[in-house]
Amino acid sequence: MKINQKKYQNGATLISWLLAAGLAVLIASAIVKVAPYYVEFSSVKGMMKNIASEPNIKKANMRIINSKIEKYLNVNNLRALEQAYYNSRPGTRPDKKTKNPFTLKRLRKSNKRILTVEYDVPQPWIGNLSFLINFKHAVVLGYPNEKVDVKHNMKKRDTGKLNLN
User: Domain spans of the chain?
Assistant: First the structure.
């Protein structure tokens, strides 16, 4: 009786290679669509750290902070943040009321003020599928290296719930 030495197939079939290649293309296209916004957000973090470290920023009002933000937006190419910021300005979009991505909050228990940025970036992907990327970062004005943990469900009136680490 003859014994078959090759009972099992070695390697993958053409269909499994095509499925793996298709999955790799989908993942690569998602990374290509999303990665530039994460690179931009790292620039936003640097911008906020620079604003927080400027002299006399502890006592600055929102108008002065907005002028510093606009200077950074004009110099750096932060398109998603520019769109969110300028669409929130009065008179720009009368049909939609969008909020300013930058908020200035004062902690109740201390005299520290926190500048927070929060904005969404909708990015179309394939057909009617899209990504919605939510960016959120906060810095303590005058203390750029101090860590701030912003709660996800924090309301404007809950300014005492910010944790400084």
Answer: 14-164
